Amino acid sequence: MRIADTAGQPCTDLLHALDSGKEGLSDAEAAVRRARYGDNRITFHHPTPVWRLLAAEFFALFPLLLLAAALLALLADHLSPHDGYDLIGLALFGVVVLNALVSFVQTYKAERLTLAFLAYIPQSVVVLRGGDKVLKNTWEVAPGDVVFVQEGDKIPADGVMLAGGPLVVDESILTGESHPRHKRPSETIDPDATLFCGALVHKGEGRMLVVATGAHTTLGEISRTTTNLDRTETPMQKELKGFVRVITWLALGIGALFFVIGMALGNPFWGNLIFAIGIIVANVPEGLLPTVTLALTQASLRMRSHNAVVKRLVAVETLGSTTVICTDKTGTLTQNRLHVAYTYLDGMQIEAAAFSALLQHPAGATAAEIMALCHDAIATRDVDGSVRFHGDPTEVALAQFVDTLPGFAAVTERFVSLSRRAFDAEARYMAATYHTQGDTLYQTVKGAPEVVLGRSHYLHRGGHPTPMNEADRSAISAQAKRYAADGLRVLALAYRIADAPGGEPEGLVFVGLVALVDPPRPEVPAAVAACQTAGIRIVVMSGDKAETVAYIARTLGIAQAPRIIEGPELATMADAALHSALSGEVLFARIAPEQKLRVVEALQAMGEVVAVTGDGVNDAPALKRADIGVAMGLKGTDVAKEASDIILLDDNFATIVAAIEQGRAVYDNIRKFITYILTSNIPEILPFLAFVLFPIPPAMTVVQILAIDLITDVLPAIGLGNEPPEADTMRRPPRPRDEHLVGMSTFVRSYLIAGPVEALLAFAAFFTVLSAGGWRWGEELLPDTPLYAQATAAFLTAIIFGQIGNVQACRTARLSALPLLRRFNPWIAGGIAFELLFVAAILTIPTLQPLFTVAPFPAQAWVWIIAAPLLLFAVTEIRKGWLRRPSS
């Protein structure tokens, strides 16, 4: 039986249905029921073995491509030993293993998601067994058991109150709302009588009848839903897969084409195969995986400085493609610091700036007394003597307000508590009765204005009760509605001199209204404006009332005339109606956290990339299903944090927007460094093609290719991955969903413009050295000759120098990179310095020369090498200028 199935049933019928009674169950019966329903544990999915998680990291498309290239390289080494193919094969294996380990760590953390649910299950509990109170392990509790709960306990299962109370229970792990709920027994089961597994008892004690245990509890259902949901593939993962497919087929196609050409020209089979393998390996961007990983890691570190902790590296980029942010209100858009903004006494409004005048008002002292006495906040005293209040945020705000006036203790110490009626959702008021020093019974009341007004016959006017007329009622009611329309939380205050403790509060003396506000965060309006400029929609999903949600949305500029959908309406909406509503301005109020999942899935079905904020256990499914789950670090539960991709340390909406800017920058930067590393593919490929087609020696060796892809290109590529966001990053709309990370323009720039220019300059240096050494066209040149080592050294050096100009040009996509030459990027500067040191080292250190097949070369070749970075930069700048020209 589920707890939801008990709503509306008489409690006696539920006891009969569960075959339980005042003495509880016997141990034997409890054991039978555990065998039927399972132990009171949350059932987790069977975890994937660690070895299988690790093995899966090697079977993604890109690792498979690198592994295939590594095997081909080892095959080439077997066919032609001592050409360096063994080194490139081992290096490729190393790259795959390193990245697999990094990805495995992230996957392993996600696999342990549901362990966070364990923290909400107590270890032992007092149970009524055969009429005796006994201490049992929580897993032994069964449906039909009678369990005792008290202040400080966590509820061990789902059930209903039988006796005791009222309880003040914190259900925020399920609801995400910080307001404690008041629970009490009821003859007919209603929401105020139900208790949920994992909730915390703040105050009170009582007995509960267990209805559902383990996986059948609300918490267990959430756990099962969360663990059964698959994370959606991120846009970056999809784009990288597409890029790898293109590169794979391109490499295989070019290799096969020139293998056929070589065979047609009569070249030996094995020689053709080796060079085909060289072409394939040269086309594979070996440095892409480590460069992407390092770029995402650096971006996550930058986001950490903006109070956003990244749990999944790929989530960094996903933020940049976000089109909709579904956000909570309390603490995210607002400061989560509820405080008194106005009091309204005898037709006079007293604003925050003039609260010192409150006690001067004839009704001021009485209003302060009611706020201090009619509450459930818990006051504690710190070591320094200061008072701290805990409990419902509204009552804490009232207590803090009183403490700044006459002093909370100064008011309460004059009264002796006799009885208290806790606030409940049906009656919508709270009452507390005290003995005064004059031994008078003084009943204080606070609650919804319309309820308290309806029970009031008098108005506290001029310091004395006077009969209330209809004009008074209309004025007070109108003022309460104005406060509510402005998004304020409004309470009415009243009292009466009672005949007996705990009587019904009728014939009250109405004292006034108190209006509270949770002010918007001051930095949020600018963040909202930035989202709107960037083409990102904001959908507020809050458990608060509609008026407050609408007011906050208007105040922050999120929406001006939105449609407001409340939870009950959402529950009955068809999918088509929900999609229609989501296409316009819409806010959600009084929405249950589990309903967030439906909104998220509806937006995703409409083609949106959705970021979702959440903090409660019930938010976990929506956080996991979202394209990017954002958990609150300050008020969020462990489960929400585990289910999320990013944790906000300050619970601040503006932090999300700052993180989105970083995410967009990451996407732009990954595109930049892919453009950069693809450029050197052409001068790496052409030497093999030229060797097959023409009677010339190969201008590069495979070890030199490895040196470029995994040594000299890496640091500058990481530098491009660490470029700060460009000035227009948040002035652009989200990129179209059909826009690819590596499109035709990237291939044109790298393969048809910059790459051929770099190759041309490298060949010019190569042939300059050969000509100076006396080589003539068509002559055979053995690989172990000094002249060959000099010529390949010039070719390699020209490519490295060309990449220096290329990396500077790649710092922008369309705008001129000239202004950025003055902006220092330590990674790019360090990368260029390393490239120069690498060239100097391999040309001057004798032990390195044979490894890389290089030797010092004549000075005339340096003309082409020095020109390489300048020409690469100039050609790319001319192309960008051509693209920026106004269309006619």
How would the blueprint of this fold be written?
Blueprint: H1 11-17, H2 27-37, H3 50-56, H4 61-79, H5 85-111, E1 124-129, E2 132-137, E3 146-150, E4 158-164, E5 167-170, H6 172-175, E6 181-183, E7 194-195, E8 200-203, E9 205-212, H7 218-228, H8 235-264, H9 269-283, H10 288-305, E10 308-310, H11 314-320, E11 324-327, E12 339-345, E13 348-351, H12 364-373, E14 378-381, E15 387-390, H13 393-403, H14 408-412, E16 416-421, E17 429-435, E18 441-447, H15 449-454, E19 456-461, E20 464-467, H16 470-485, E21 489-497, E22 508-517, H17 524-533, E23 537-540, H18 546-556, E24 563-566, H19 567-572, H20 575-582, E25 586-589, H21 593-605, E26 610-614, H22 620-625, E27 628-632, H23 638-643, E28 646-648, H24 653-679, H25 681-693, H26 702-712, H27 714-721, H28 744-772, H29 786-809, H30 826-844, H31 849-852, H32 862-884
Parallel strand pairs: 11-23, 11-26, 19-22, 24-25, 26-27, 27-28
Antiparallel strand pairs: 1-2, 1-3, 3-9, 4-7, 4-9, 5-6, 5-8, 10-28, 12-13, 12-22, 14-15, 16-17, 17-18, 18-21, 19-20, 21-22
Helix pairs in contact: 4-5, 4-9, 5-26, 8-9, 9-25, 10-24, 10-27, 11-24, 12-13, 17-24, 24-27, 24-28, 25-28, 27-30, 28-29, 28-32, 29-30, 29-32
Q: Mind summarizing the main beta sheet?
A: 9 strands, mixed
**CATH fold call of one domain:** Calcium-transporting ATPase, cytoplasmic domain N
**Parts with pLDDT < 50 across at least 5 consecutive residues:** 113-118
- Counted by DSSP, the helix tally is 32
Indicate the structural class: alpha+beta
Span from first to last CA?
Answer: 72 Å
Q: Roughly what fraction of the amino acids lie in strands?
A: 15-25%
Question: What portion of residues is helical?
Answer: 40-55%
Overall pLDDT confidence: 83
CATH architecture of one domain: 3-Layer(aba) Sandwich
Work out the number of β strands: 28
CATH homologous superfamily descriptor of one domain: Calcium-transporting ATPase, cytoplasmic domain N
Kindly report the oligomeric state of this protein: single chain
Tell me, what's the shape? elongated
CATH class of one domain: Alpha Beta
Whole-angstrom Rg: 36 Å
